[in-house]
Structure formats: C-alpha cells, structure tokens
C-alpha cells in the first residue's frame, strides 16, 4: 500500500467491494460486515495517507459508513429500475458508492490537510482507543441494521413514519443541531482530558440527547402534548434518533476540526512568512554592499574635508538604521513614515550616483495616513537600482504615485546586460506574501519593454 497513490487505493477497494458483494450474493452469504470492514480499512488508509489524526479518522469511520449505507441502498433501488439483474445492480452500486465515498473524503480533507509533516500523522498512541471505539460502534450499527430492519416494526413504511415524526418537529431538529455544536466546541476547549473521560462524556451526552430529542419529537413538544405516546413508539423512534445523533455529531466534529485546522494552518503560515520577512529586513540592515559603499563615500568626504556633508550623511545613515530597528516588530507603518525613510535612503544614493537617477513622487494627502508594509517602497527602489543601468547620460527615473488605495512605483526599464535573468524576485515574493497574510490583498507587477511597474495596496 505504501507505493500506491490515494487514487489507486480508492479504485482497488472499489473493485474489491464489488467483487466481494458479487461473490457473497452468489454464495448466499450476507456481505454487510465484510463490506463494512473493507470500508473501514479504506477510510483508515486514506486518512493515513492524507496525514490526519486519530480523532478525525475515528469520526470519518462513522460518517462514511452511515452515508455509504444510505447511498448504497438508495443507489441500488434507483439502478434496479433500469437494470434487470439484481447481481449486476448490487455489484455496480457497491462499486460506485465506494468510489464516491473515497473521493468525497479526499476532497473534504483537501480543505485542511496539514501536509506530510510526520508530527501530524496518525500514529498508534493512547488515542487509538477512540478509533477502536468507532470501529466497534459501526459494527454494532451494521448488526442493528441487519437485525432490526428485518423486523416488521422497522419495515420501510413504518420506518418512514418514524423518521417523519422526528423530521417534522423543527424544535427537535434545532435542539439536536445546537446541542451538538455546543458540545463539540466544549470538548475542543477541554481536549487535554484523558481519552477515557472524553469517551465517557461523549457516550453520556449522546444518550441524554437521544432521549430528550426523542421525547420532544414523540410528545410533539413544545406546540402540543401527545398523551398517547407510548413505550412501544419510544423504542423505534429513539433508535432512529440515536443513528441521526451519532451521524450529526460526527459531521459537526469533522467540520469543526476542519475549520480549526485551517485556521491553525493560516496562522502558522503567517508566522512563518513574517519571520522570513523579518530575516530579510535583518539582512538588509547589515547589507555588506550598502554599508561598504556608505563607508567609502564617508571616507572620501572626510579626506576631501567636506565635514558638514559627512556629518549630514552620517545622520541620514543613522536615521535609516534607526527606522529599520524601530519597524522590525511592526507589521505595518504609516505611509508618511515610510516615505520619510525612503527620502533619506534616496539622498544617500544620490551622493553615490550623482545625476544617474532621480525619484519623483505624487502623493495624495489622504494616503499619508494609510499603512504599508515596512521597507516595501525602499525595497522596490533598491531593486530598480540593482537591476537597471544607472547612468547620467540616460538616468534611471523612479516615480512614486500614491492614491486612495494603493502606491504605484514605476521605473524606466533598462536592464543591466551583464546580469540577464539574475533577479531572484525574493524581495517581491516576501512583500507579496506579507500583503496576502495581513490583508489578503495581492500586489500587482507589470513589465513592458520600456517600463517596470509594481502596485502595492494601502491598508
């Protein structure tokens, strides 16, 4: 099984289900428990390959088997209307049901799969008792299906009437849904409890909920009070309610687990990207090329006796590093602060490149109070200097335009021929990811033969 993909596992078990169903019908053997066992193995294998934990796998066993029973039964009846052979109907409905269940579980797990991290994979630990309990529950339910539904009290006509008693009482259904949602969230907040305690609490909750909802539906509460409701009617209605309760709880647990897992993933991913961005800014702070060039320029100023210019250069250089240090822990800064920082950075570059480039700006006053990712505009200017020719004969022109919801940084496109394709776009990727994590807003990048343009959102 290790070499098989999930798709191969699903197809293999679908064929195996169909073959077992066909052979059992030919031999006159009941196939309920064998098909149940195969379905459980399929679910466990898919959950293992998808990296899911024991709790989710256990509740998947319950939900998928119940849905599989209903889907298989309904599908067989529908196919029986067009296919005359009962053997073909049983084998085909079993095959299609297994395919639908397998791919349905795969599709659902894609919403919150944690990947191939072995920490989050299912393992044999004390929680495996929950898995064994789920398997035992399913086997008991399937035995109940075989035995109870073969009796007159659970004939299709009577079963429909019992189910209609429950589904026609909106209060009973609302109570059933609400108490399950509340209990699932309560159990998640107290997940540190021992597994045995959780199973006991869950069992008591399911039984109490079943009894209460059965009484509400059977007595037609709260709009009426049916005094004719008897123990003979209570038993079958409670069985149906118990099946619905177990299935509903399992579904709510799986959905809650999926939502929590996706939230955790999004948070962890955001923290990872933030840490990477801070690391990139740290490397900028100690950028050896920038520091080397700055010290060389200072040395020339001192040697030429331009002490006032050297002092101003030092103050601007100190201001740049001060801003980087102050914004290190900030996710967003005011555009006004970022532009002040950019102005100091540009002044230092002008000392080095003289007339080789210029920066023009057109900033709407209302945009100054909005926020951007720290060092984002400076990084765009640094990229423009790094990847384009800076020459007095054909100066590099960088233009910064800020409107109501975005900042657009453009420059004339004249790439250095000595380093074609050398850009790794690491800085742009970090900026893009920051805006996706913080505001779920993308940055825009466009390039023509004459112009390079980057648009970053204002938040």
Q: In words, what does this structure look like?
A:
The chain starts with 5 loop residues before the first helix and ends with a strand. It has 14 helices and 7 strands. The protein has helices at residues 6-27, 32-49, 54-80, 86-109, 128-148, 156-167, 170-189, 195-218, 231-285, 288-303, 307-326, 335-353, 376-387, 426-439; strands at 333-334, 357-363, 371-372, 396-402, 406-412, 444-447, 451-457. It is elongated and about 105 Å long. With 459 residues, it is α+β, with helices and mostly antiparallel strands. The chain has a 5-stranded mixed β-sheet, with helices on one face. Strands 1-3 form a two-stranded antiparallel sheet. The protein folds into 3 domains: 1-150, no CATH class; 153-285, no CATH class; 286-457, Histidine kinase-like ATPase, C-terminal domain (Heat Shock Protein 90, 2-Layer Sandwich), CATH 3.30.565. Strand 6 (444-447) and strand 7 form a beta hairpin. Helix 7 packs across helix 9 (231-285).
What would a concise description of this structure say?
The protein has 459 residues and is of the alpha+beta class. It has helices spanning 6-27, 32-49, 54-80, 86-109, 128-148, 156-167, 170-189, 195-218, 231-285, 288-303, 307-326, 335-353, 376-387, 426-439, and strands at 333-334, 357-363, 371-372, 396-402, 406-412, 444-447, 451-457. Helices cover 66% and strands 8% of the residues.
Properties at a glance:
elongated, alpha+beta, 7 strands, 459 residues, two-stranded antiparallel ribbon, 3 domains, five-stranded mixed sheet, single chain, Heat Shock Protein 90
């Amino acid at each position: 099984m290790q070499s098989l993909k999930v798709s191969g596992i699903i197809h293999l078990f679908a064929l195996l289900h169909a073959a077992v169903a066909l052979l059992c019908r030919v031999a006159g053997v009941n196939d309920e428990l064998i098909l149940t066992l195969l379905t459980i193995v399929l679910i466990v294998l898919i959950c293992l390959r998808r990296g899911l934990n024991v709790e989710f796998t256990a509740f998947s066993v319950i939900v998928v088997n119940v849905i599989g029973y209903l889907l298989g039964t309904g599908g067989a009846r529908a196919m029986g209307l067009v296919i005359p052979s009962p053997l073909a109907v049983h084998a085909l409905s079993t095959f299609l049901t297994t395919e639908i269940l397998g791919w349905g579980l795969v599709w659902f797990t894609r919403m919150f799969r944690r990947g191939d991290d072995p920490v989050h994979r299912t393992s044999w630990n004390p929680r495996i008792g929950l898995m064994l309990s789920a398997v035992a529950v399913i086997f008991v339910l399937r035995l109940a299906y075989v035995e109870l539904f073969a009796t007159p009290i659970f004939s299709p006509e009577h079963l429909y009437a019992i189910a209609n008693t429950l589904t026609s009482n909106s209060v009973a259904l609302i109570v059933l849904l609400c108490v399950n949602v509340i209990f699932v969230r309560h159990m998640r907040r107290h997940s540190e409890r021992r597994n045995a305690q959780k199973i006991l609490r869950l069992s008591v909750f399911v039984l109490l909920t079943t009894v209460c909802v059965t009484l509400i539906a059977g007595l037609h509460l709260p709009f009426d009070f049916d005094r004719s409701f008897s123990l003979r009617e209570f038993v079958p209605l409670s069985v149906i309610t118990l099946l619905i309760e177990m299935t509903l709880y399992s579904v709510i647990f799986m959905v809650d687990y999926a939502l929590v897992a996706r939230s955790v993933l999004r948070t962890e991913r955001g923290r990872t990207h933030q840490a990477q961005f801070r690391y990139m800014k740290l490397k900028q702070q100690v950028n050896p090329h920038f520091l080397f060039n700055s010290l060389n320029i200072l040395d020339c100023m001192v040697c030429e006796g331009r002490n006032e210019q050297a002092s101003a250069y030092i103050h601007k250089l100190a201001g740049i590093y001060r801003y980087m240090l102050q914004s290190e822990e900030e996710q967003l800064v005011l555009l006004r602060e970022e532009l002040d920082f950019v102005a100091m950075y540009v002044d230092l570059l002008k000392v080095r490149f003289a007339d080789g480039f210029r920066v023009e700006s057109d900033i709407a006053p209302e945009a100054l109070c909005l926020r951007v990712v720290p060092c984002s505009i400076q990084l765009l200017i640094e990229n423009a200097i790094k990847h384009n020719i800076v020459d007095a004969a054909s100066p590099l022109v960088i233009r910064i335009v800020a409107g109501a919801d975005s900042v657009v940084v453009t420059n004339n496109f004249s790439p250095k021929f000595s380093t074609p394709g050398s850009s790794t776009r690491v800085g742009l990727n970090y900026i893009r990811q920051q805006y996706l994590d913080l505001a779920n807003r993308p940055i825009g990048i466009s390039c023509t033969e004459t112009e390079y343009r980057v648009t970053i959102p204002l938040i």
